[in-house]
UniProtKB/TrEMBL annotation:
It comes from Salibacterium salarium. This is DNA polymerase/3'-5' exonuclease PolX. Keywords: Exonuclease, Hydrolase, Nuclease, Nucleotidyltransferase, Transferase. The gene is polX. Residues 1-314 form the DNA-directed DNA polymerase X domain. GO terms for molecular function: DNA binding; DNA-directed DNA polymerase activity; exonuclease activity; phosphoric ester hydrolase activity; zinc ion binding.
Length: 575
DNA sequence: GCCGTTTTCGGCCCGACTGTTTTCAGTCG
């Protein structure tokens, strides 16, 4: 059994215990054990004694050992016999948790969606103590909605939805200020719902206006401090709004930005110094005085921490990392973008137009990197057109003295592992990106054969979207990422952090491993149109999530320093 | 079930909302 499967088993034990109505702390102990394993970088075989990890004690360690050695767990098997597996998916129904489901099972013999539906329609559910007519109605409608929407939606979908929601809020709700919170602010790859914190003059009016927004299909909760709405997009999207007084804005924003695990870390720190944290402020347990803060910076500083960017609030080791100043990347550090397309292949603007758009975003340098000839559908460039494009780029570059435009290419690595352009053309380019756009289903050996062609070519500076995944749609090709990170570092090849919210490739999870190895990373937008140049902010957010250091990120370099990086690989390999 | 530079027992992050209740449990984030 590998680590992933083992973690899954522990989580499954927790789920079954929940359905049995077990002690919630016991349940969370299994979840914590799973988490402890997940957050440890080592593989199962590299771990000598899992019980040494915080969060794994005698009981859970025994289960881990048993799973490791026998691939099964007595405890899990027993639970599976005691609790019908058909109940597991019912936990996803809103309003139904372990306790209610346990009761439904014990009292009515409910064991799956169909039997639950039957009991509801027979009117038996409303008769149970603690249940009622409304609960029964809600279950029926939840059962009907089940499967209409995936549990979480990809960030690119939610970013679009958020834009629409925010435009509506700004137009129709009387607000002093508001901010995004939740997993969208943390730049998670998938998002469950949209969260906003609002300061308003008149809460009653604001609540009324919120409920009247276009697209609102349901009001899920409507209280003094919180309004939950369902809006109809392609999928229904839940929007949670917290209404707060100005003085509680920072703490509320922090609280609802999460993550949940991050909040737990902060609250434990508070507790250790005799305080209690809630969305309303920090309470001194002795005096009962509540402190509020003018900003999140001030809030963190109260706990002796530097500002932790939302993306990095994972509830892992960030409260340790940010005790010392951590050189993370911010918008102003970004000096350029090395991956974009023009009308020469499948982009929307000319070279000059694209350069002006980049310049207006404060970039000091960019690279034009159209597709190469293998990508016929994108009107990729052959050798002759590459040479002509180099001339055109030179011409535009000479016209502007406040931005440097490099002549680059996004060259395909063909399925057979050959590069798509002749060496004597590659030599003439300032920068070469290599990409895989075909034969995604090859074996790992075949894919790695192609990767090696790029890694060991003296002309390839960057490997773009290294795993080829599309969030929520495509897994990506079979890459030995560990090897890629190592060899990229060894050969002076940078790996791309593709900022397109459909991709986010490499992922934050992989990027996290690069600091130690020393792999250079370039945050690229891969823009095909001017608005896509704005994706740089998303890429920077992912870099913060991965705790990348400034010095590792090519985008922070001056033009001269960028050039020396690009020339370094050629110099070494051609010597 | 886990954990301890106050603790080997008694806590375990904290609060809002709903629907069920006449003071609170369950669920959710």
């Amino acid at each position: 059994m590998n680590k992933k499967e083992l973690i899954k088993s522990l989580e499954l034990i927790a789920v079954y215990m929940e359905l049995k109505g077990e002690n919630p702390f016991k349940i969370s102990a299994y979840r914590k054990a799973a988490q402890a394993l997940e957050q440890d970088e080592r593989s199962l075989s590299e771990m000598e004694d899992p019980a040494k990890l915080t969060g794994i004690g005698k009981g859970t360690a025994a289960v881990v050992e048993e799973l490791r050695e026998t691939n099964r767990s007595e405890l899990l098997e027993t639970l599976k016999e005691e609790v019908p597996s058909g109940l597991v998916p019912l936990l996803d129904l809103p309003g139904l948790g372990g306790k209610k489901l346990a009761k439904l099972y014990q009292e009515l013999g409910v064991h799956d969606a169909a039997s639950l539906k039957k009991e509801c329609h027979a009117g038996n559910v409303q008769k149970l103590a603690g249940f009622g007519v409304k609960t029964e109605e809600k279950i029926i409608s939840a059962l009907e909605d089940m499967g209409n929407r995936p549990e979480r939606l990809p960030i690119h979908f939610m970013l679009e939805a958020a834009k629409v929601v925010e435009q509506q809020i700004e137009e129709h709700v009387e607000i002093d200020r508001y901010a995004r919170a939740g997993s969208l602010r943390r730049m998670e790859e998938t998002i469950k719902d949209l969260d906003y914190i609002m300061v308003v003059e008149d809460p009653d009016t604001a609540r009324k206006q919120l409920k009247q927004l276009d697209l609102v299909s349901d009001v899920i909760a409507d209280g003094q401090a919180k309004v939950s709405l369902e809006l109809s997009f392609t999928y229904p999207v839940q929007v949670d709004v917290r209404l707060v007084e100005e003085k509680a804005f920072a703490t509320t924003l922090h609280h609802f930005t999460g993550s949940k695990d991050h909040n737990v870390l902060i609250r434990q720190m508070a507790k250790a110094q005799g305080e209690k944290v809630s969305e309303y402020g920090v309470e001194d347990l002795e005096t009962g005085d509540v402190t509020t803060f003018s900003s999140e910076e001030a809030f963190f500083s109260h706990f002796g921490l530097h500002y932790i960017p939302p993306e990095a609030r994972l509830g892992r080791d960030e409260t340790e990392q940010y005790k010392e100043p951590f050189e993370t990347i911010v918008r102003n550090d970004i000096r350029g973008d090395l991956h974009m397309h023009t009308t020469w292949s499948d982009g929307a603007l000319s070279i000059e137009e694209m350069a002006l758009e980049a310049r207006s975003r404060g970039h000091e340098w960019i690279a034009i990197t159209d597709h190469s000839k293998f990508l016929q559908v994108a009107h990729g460039l052959n050798e002759e057109r590459v040479l002509r494009q180099i001339e055109e780029i030179k011409r535009v570059n000479e016209k502007y003295n406040d931005i440097e435009i490099l002549a680059g290419i996004e060259m395909d690595i063909r399925p057979d592992g050959t590069l798509d352009l002749d060496e004597d053309v590659l030599k003439r380019l300032d920068l070469v990106i290599a990409s895989i756009h075909s034969s995604f289903s090859q074996t790992e050996a075949e894919i790695m054969h192609r990767m090696k062609a790029a890694l060991y070519s003296p002309y390839v500076n960057i490997i773009a979207h290294p795993t080829g995944r599309l969030i929520g749609r495509r897994e990506g090709y079979k890459v030995d990422v560990e090897f890629l990170l190592q060899e990229a570092a060894a050969t002076g090849t940078a790996l791309e952090l593709n900022s397109n919210p459909n991709r986010l490739d490499l992922s934050a999870e992989w990027l996290r491993k690069t600091s130690e190895i020393g792999t250079m990373i370039t945050i690229n937008t891969d823009a095909h149109s001017p608005d896509m140049l704005n994706h740089m902010d998303i890429g920077a957010g992912i870099a913060r999530k991965a705790l990348l250091q400034k010095g590792q990120i090519i985008n922070t370099r001056s033009y001269a320093s960028l050039l020396s990086f690009l020339q370094e690989k050629r110099r070494i390999e051609t010597e």
